[in-house]
Design goal:
With about 375 residues, the chain is α/β, with parallel strands linked by helices. It has helices spanning about 25-40, 60-75, 85-100, 130-140, 155-170, 185-195, 210-220, 240-245, 265-275, 280-300, 305-310; strands at about 10-15, 50-55, 80, 105, 120-125, 145-150, 175-180, 200-205, 225-230, 255, 315-320, 320-325, 325, 335, 345-350, 350-360. The radius of gyration is 20 Å and the shape is globular.
């Protein structure tokens, strides 16, 4: 039985580790957390005190996440790290804000992570508005202006649809919504053939209904020239390739990696590959950077929650994917890393285990408010 070290500095860690959560994403997130924590402890911990992760599985359930945040706050964690699913992260951030618990959001993108501006929450991943506009620019640059989106009811998918529609229609494009709660994959194919759209975006869950929808489109001769896209990143993980094989290649998605990792990133990538026994996703690097930032803040400012939250504007940490600094940005309620890298990539049809970079977001910071 594990006996907690009473001298340890504790960080609460949220990740989806069971279904219906995206388990593979949670495993990568946790691998990054754990590697960074181990390296912190190998380097003397936080002022000589060991760093301990207190991990809680959210299973993609906002209510479960809120209960975990409340429990972790009661356990005396100095700060909170995580989550992967944006709707779950929003619930966690709202709870952390109410409890006065500093939360470094790792991998979730909803612009409105909290309803009101908060000093308690910072974020590493880019806001959805920036990432998905980058994706829309990629579509336009590739000649796709008539877009269909297969959607499910969710604030995340609805927000993504709105961002795409606003950006594309302002540039002469057109977006047609196909409701996957009312349509079978075969019906989506029929509707897609009627719309004349040249691209279908998967704004749906993985593996259901994304995988059967991809299979249906790939097998429909009417849609042979239609691009399938997945801005939310479903093809990033190995399970996608396992379930779809060659059908899963050539589907562009967003990931948050630079053209070249920093020297730290290259070293961490090697260690993560050993830990995961496969190539690490960008989510694993996000996890590592999260703990690295929190550890540096606590070394410099102590482990008091107010002091940690008060340190967000002074953060300057060399992470695996670039220098991390937080600022206030327009229409974003939390402290935001202003220059997270953004790429549009796909799996190479000739080598589905390899990724091709198709488009890179402009290296411009999110606008200051």
């Amino acid at each position: 039985m594990h006996t907690p070290d009473e001298s340890a500095v504790r960080i609460g860690a949220l990740a989806p580790l069971t279904r219906p959560g995206w388990v593979e994403a949670g495993q990568h997130l946790l691998a990054g957390f754990e590697l960074a924590a181990r390296e912190v402890n190998d380097g003397g911990g936080i002022g000589g005190r060991p760093l301990e992760l207190v991990v809680r599985d959210t299973a993609a359930d906002p209510k479960r996440a809120v209960a975990a945040v409340e429990e972790l706050a009661g356990l005396g964690v100095a700060a909170l790290a995580g989550e992967y699913h944006s709707v779950v992260a929003r619930a966690s951030a709202t709870s952390a804000d109410a409890l006065g618990l500093p939360f470094l959001c790792t991998s979730s993108v909803l612009d409105a992570l909290t309803e009101q501006p908060t000093e308690w929450v910072a974020r590493l991943s880019p806001p959805q508005s920036r990432g998905w506009r980058t994706y829309a620019d990629f579509l336009l640059g590739a000649g796709h202006s008539r877009i269909a989106v297969a959607t499910q009811p969710s604030v995340y998918w609805a927000t993504g649809t709105r961002i795409l529609r606003d950006h594309l229609t302002a540039r002469g494009g057109r977006v047609t919504e196909l409701d996957m709660s009312a349509l079978t994959p075969a019906a989506v194919c029929d509707a897609l053939a009627e719309t004349g759209a040249t691209a279908l975006l998967l704004l749906v869950g993985h593996p259901e209904p994304a995988v059967p929808l991809v299979k249906a489109v790939r097998r429909d001769q009417r849609l042979a020239e239609v691009l399938i896209g997945a801005p939310a990143g479903q093809p990033e993980f190995a399970e996608w390739a396992t379930l779809l094989g060659g059908d899963g290649a050539g589907i562009p998605f967003l990931r948050y990696l630079p053209e070249r990792l920093t020297p730290l990133g290259a070293r961490v990538g090697t260690a993560l590959r050993e830990r995961l026994a496969l190539a690490p996703s960008f989510v694993a690097f996000e996890g590592y950077d999260t703990i690295a930032v929190l550890a540096e803040v606590m070394r410099s400012h102590g482990t008091d929650r107010k002091r940690i939250a008060g340190a967000w504007p002074s953060v300057a940490v060399d992470g695996t994917r670039g220098r991390i600094e937080f600022s206030r940005t327009a229409d974003i309620s939390v402290w935001q890393w202003a220059r997270p890298p953004i790429q549009v990539v796909d799996r190479d049809p000739a080598r589905p285990d390899r990724f091709r970079v198709l488009h890179t977001g402009r290296d411009t910071p999110c606008p200051k408010s």
